[in-house]
Amino acid sequence: MLSSLGITSTRSLLTQVLNFALVLSSAFMLWKALSVAADSPSPIVVVLSGSMEPAFERGDLLFLWNRAPDTRVGDIVVYNVRGKDIPIVHRVVRRFGGGATPLRLLTKGDNNAADDTELYAPGQNYLDREKDVIGSVVGYVPMVGYVTILLSEYPWLKKAMLGIMGLTVVLQRE
Fold first, then answer.
1. For residue 112, is pLDDT > 90?
2. Are residues 10 and 50 in the same domain?
3. Are 115 and 51 found together in one domain?
4. Alpha carbon distance 130, 84 (integer Å)
5. 28 and 100: one domain?
6. If you average pLDDT over residues 16-33, what whole number do you get?
7. Which residues form the Peptidase S24/S26A/S26B/S26C domain (predicted)?
8. Residue 104 — φ and ψ, nearest 5°?
9. Statement to judge: residues 30 and 96 lie in one domain
């Protein structure tokens, strides 16, 4: 009787761990599918600063699309600065080239006084549309991304949430 109780408990725990792994792998596959559909390495980003207020506030979740390479003045793009990890969300204020020559962009935050040339990599005066821009903003959900900001600003919160999720998996009964 006691050994069958141990097998049932082990089997139940294994089922819960596998269900948790299934949820994680499904989220990863959804992320990759969105990346392919949007042609962007990061199809969803969170606004981390107030530089785009009032258009976007800190914590807004943005949806990106990178399949329309003809970016226009006024479009809001997300770009990576060479040598830095955090993407920047700003509006295109000027464009150079296009067609036969590579499209180059100059950006600026709506809430900033000057353009982004100070944010670009040393020696860079514009963004290369193909190399630097990871997508144009096509939609957003207000404040939903604030959880991401909290998790990055308070590392202990990330550990606490992972611990709670792990406990939930272990203690959940079907």
1. yes
2. no
3. yes
4. 17
5. no
6. 89
7. 36-119
8. -120, 145
9. no
Which residues lie closer than 8 Å to 172 by C-beta, 6 or more apart?
Answer: 16
Percent of the chain with pLDDT over 90: 57
Of 1-15, 66-80, 131-145, give the lowest mean pLDDT range. Answer: 1-15
Amino acid at 156: W
Same domain, 15 and 32: yes
Q: Cα(first)–Cα(last) distance of the chain, in Å?
A: 21
Annotate 37-51 with b (16+ C-beta within 10 A) or e (fewer): ebebebbbbbbbeeb
- The amino acid occupying position 93 is V
Question: How confident is residue 106, by pLDDT bands cut at 50, 70 and 90?
Answer: very high
d(CA 33, CA 97): 32
Picking from 54, 72, 65, the residue whose alpha carbon sits closest to that of residue 142 is 54
Measured distance CA(77)–CA(74) in Å, rounded: 9
Same domain, 49 and 131: yes
Which residues form the catalytic set?
51, 90, 116
For residue 4, the model assigns a pLDDT of 55
Global confidence as pTM: 0.79
